[in-house]
């Protein structure tokens, strides 16, 4: 089965850049298929599961795009893009087990098909493949991969444990997003710039850009979980609410309640969230009420603010089509909120 790739970060206005990215992503896809299909019949089926379900391939696209700021796509850039996407896919297997998610990208989650143990081991296998891929790129690449993996784990731990007493849950959530999502997108930008010859402030700028874009993208997803259709999401809208996963709109509403400034409708939403959301009717009513509450615009603006900050990080770079494309990339991460 061929993967259903949704080229989420594309198209870009520069035809030459878009063509280079399309060609590069096609090669990344070919290498990904090889990477998940070289162990055994028993291992290949679960490890291929999410790859075949498709995806935006945002992280490989960003690695390829940042490389255009320097010497362009190379063997090292392609391999790094593969390593980053394998790491991302591996993390999704583990996330779905921890969140008891029933679907991913419109398909049954791996643990629904093979059980928790197989899904976890499939994720571990993909982490191993990612490490093998990155190991061929040298010590600096291994260091970036290891530090990113640590941040992924810490981010997941912080989300699972929750904020300690006295910490603002909104700020805690932003730190979780920076760890769970921003760190790997920053690594993609880092790899692309590093293997295209960027150094110093230029390289640092794309790393900062990547992390901020990652947080913006995930904040946008927090909103879209409540405002998009099941067909677009690949899961039931409001699934995060049902599973008790913290999202920015709910956290902003709770912060308003703690400050004594929540309105009556917001209070009704918070009360409903404490009730039984197992039925689609109950969940749908809460989703509708929250989606129409003013707190949603606060969350949207927060996402847009991170996207603007991401673009501002690129100010040290000279003008170029690739820099313009990165600005477009940031806009595309949040324009889904329109």
Automatic annotation (TrEMBL):
It comes from the Bacteria. Its cofactor is Mg(2+). It holds the Pfam family polyprenyl_synt. Keywords: Magnesium, Metal-binding, Transferase. One of its GO terms (molecular function) is metal ion binding. PROSITE patterns: POLYPRENYL_SYNTHASE_2 (PS00444). Gene3D superfamilies: Farnesyl Diphosphate Synthase (1.10.600.10). Belongs to the FPP/GGPP synthase family. This is Geranylgeranyl pyrophosphate synthase. It comes from Litorihabitans aurantiacus.
């Amino acid at each position: 089965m061929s993967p259903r790739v949704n080229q989420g970060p594309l198209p870009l206005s520069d035809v030459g850049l878009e063509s280079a990215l399309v060609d590069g992503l096609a090669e990344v896809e070919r290498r990904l298929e090889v990477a998940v299909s070289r162990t055994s019949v028993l291992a290949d089926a679960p490890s291929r599961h999410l790859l075949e379900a498709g995806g935006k391939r945002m992280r490989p696209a960003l690695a390829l795009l940042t490389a255009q700021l320097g010497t362009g796509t190379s063997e090292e850039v392609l391999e790094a893009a593969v390593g980053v996407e394998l790491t991302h896919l591996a993390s999704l297997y583990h996330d779905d087990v921890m969140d008891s998610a029933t679907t991913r990208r419109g398909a049954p989650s791996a643990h629904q098909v093979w059980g928790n143990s197989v899904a976890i081991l499939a994720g571990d296998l993909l982490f191993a493949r990612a490490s093998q891929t990155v190991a061929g790129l040298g010590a600096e690449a291994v260091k970036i991969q290891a530090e990113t993996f640590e941040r992924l784990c810490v981010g997941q731990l912080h989300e699972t444990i929750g904020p300690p007493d006295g910490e603002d849950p909104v700020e805690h959530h932003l730190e979780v997003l920076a760890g769970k999502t921003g760190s790997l997108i920053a690594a993609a930008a880092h790899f692309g710039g590093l293997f295209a010859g960027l150094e110093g402030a230029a390289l640092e700028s794309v790393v900062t850009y990547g992390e901020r874009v990652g947080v913006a993208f995930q904040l946008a997803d927090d909103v879209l979980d409540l405002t998009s259709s099941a067909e677009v999401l690949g899961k039931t809208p409001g699934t995060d609410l049902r599973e008790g996963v913290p999202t920015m709109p709910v956290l902003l509403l709770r912060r308003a309640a703690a400050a004594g400034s929540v309105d009556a409708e917001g209070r009704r939403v918070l009360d409903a969230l404490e009730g039984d959301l197992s039925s689609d009717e109950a969940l749908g009513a809460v989703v509708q009420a929250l989606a129409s509450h003013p707190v949603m615009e606060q969350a949207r603006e927060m996402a847009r603010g991170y996207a603007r900050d991401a673009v501002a990080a690129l100010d040290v770079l000279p003008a170029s089509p690739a820099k313009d494309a990165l600005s477009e990339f940031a806009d595309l991460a949040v324009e889904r909120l329109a």
